[in-house]
Structures are given as C-alpha cells and as structure tokens.
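Below sits the subject:

***
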Amino acid sequence: MLILLSAFLSALGSMFRSRGALELENLALRHQIGVLERSVRKRPKLTAADRLFWVFLSRVWDDWRSALDIVQPATVIAWHRQGFRLFWIWKIRHGRVGRPAVACEVRDLIRKMSRENPLWGAPHIHGELLKLGIEISETSVANYLVRHRKPPSQTWRTFLNHHVHNLVSIDFFTVPTIRFQVLYVFLVLAHDRRRVLHFNVTAHPTAEWTAQQLREAFPYDQVPRYLLRDRDQIFGDTFRAQVNNLQIQEVLTAPRSPWQRAYVERVIGSIRRECLDHVIVFGEGSLRRTLSSYFSYYHQTRPHLSLNKDAPEPRPIQRLELGPVVTSTPSWRTTSSVTNDALPERIWEGTPPIGLSRI
C-alpha cells in the first residue's frame, strides 16, 4: 500500500511539472527498470494490491501496455478475468446455503458397497440406496465411490485358475545335438494335473507338421475348450484352421510375455534342469527315447508343488511296513539301490535320484 500511495503522490506532483521534465523522469525510471531486469533473475513477487492496481490502470488508460515491464500484458488480462469470475461466484452464493451434507453413515455405506462390489457404478449404488429409503443424488454417490487401482475385469491369473480344467498350453523348445544340429520339441501340456498330453521331435518344424501333432494330441472325445500359445510364426494358417476344425478357442499371450504361459515354461525348465542338462543327444530317436523315459518318471513319480506334492498320476502313499526304500533306474540315468539304513547318506550324494519306492 505504501508503494501505491507513493506512486499516487508522484502522479499528483507530475501534474505541475513541464513536459520535458516528465520525459526525462520516464527515461530515468525505464533505465532503472532495465538494470533491475538484467540483474534480478527471479520472478517479481506481486501482491493482490499490485494486481488490482494494474487491472484498474488497464481499464482507464489505453496505452497501459507500453509502460508494463514486470509481467506480460496477457497476465494482467488473466487477472481481470479471474477477478470477474470470483465476483460472480460470490454474487451467486451470497445469502444461500450449499447442498445439504451427506450423513457420515451414508458415506460409509457408499464406500462399503463400492469396495465389496467393484463392478457397481454410481447408478447401481444410487438405485440400491433409493430402495433402502435413503434420499441422495447420483452425483453425490459418485463423489464418495472408492477408486479402485486395478480394473474390475479379471486378471490373467484369475482366467487361468477359472479355466484350468479346460485349458492346455503348447510350445516349442530347442535341443542341440552332438553334431551341433538343432532339434525342436513340440509339447502339449494339460493345466489341470500338469500332464504332458503329447510331444514329438523334429528338425524341420512346419505349420503342417504342427497341425498334425495337434490332431494326434486331441482325440475327438478329449478336445479342450481353450488353447494357450504364443505368437510364434510357426503357428500359421494351416495350424489355425486345424484349431478351428476341432472347435478350440485360441488364447494368445502378449508379445515377449513368457510369464503368461507360466505352466508350460515351468515344465520346459524342469525338463532342462532334470534331464537334458545331464545327457548328450545324438539325434531325433535318441532325444525321443530320453524324453519318453523322463515323462514316465514325470507322470508317475515326480512330486509337484502345484499338486500338493503329488504326481500328475496320483501316487499312493507307501507305508514303512511295505519294505526298504530303493531308487528307480531310468534308461537315461544310472543310480544304485539303497536301503533304509543308507538312505540319509546316499539319497543326496551327487545328483539326486530319479524316484524312490518301497519293495
């Protein structure tokens, strides 16, 4: 206010000065303002009185833009529009009460209904409240809804769990041979008991060969509802036509998202860690025999975490009275038989044995 009062008194004094003195004074003031703008890099701090002064000056002086240096002319116009808006807001609300406040119990009820029913929107909850005799507007209901972070649609894991009994996964993985040849293994996995329904080996996979494997994997009385696969180009038009003929619905995963095919990826990892990393493959026949032996152990003996430590083919519990403990001897790994007395020392010596049973 002191600055505005000083400016007003200076304006009164300038009325008694000559035109030349006023021109020199304006020159001196503009030079000082230029020095300040060059020296001070921070934005000037303006009060409400400063803004009001420039808004008033812009209404009574046509050439006010020529003397403005501290802010842009558009800023002064924005100040005027903001003041006009605040004036009308005050005029409309003056002497009136606002919308009646919503009771705390009603607000808690709205949040509870929204939290427990994420698919319900404001119209649905508003209708339920009206049936309970609670008079409230739909806009007020929308203001108190719980904002869910995740979309209300089911997640990918929920989809897999809901359709685990009607869903199979297919995938390829590669195996190098002793002659540096790359073999492709086609795998079909049922999600319900983690059973490998079908597999085959080839050195030259094609869409026609893959479609033939699909026909061999699914007899007409055992066709699943959903087929989960990636977007590999090997699944061409011939393969998709075969899937449509079997009346199977394809579910494609996102690009570069192996976690969406977690079941089959986990099986492939188990095959590599427990079998293929310990043998040398000579050719297609050798690899096919090795995998057949491993899948026999995989289905009948190997415990699975997802099956409560049971095998895909339910394995009975063998009590102590049945006899001593021995290890199985698959064709692709040789292990020695052990007895109950030697079990603590021999079972984890070197590579773990393939399976245990009692005789």
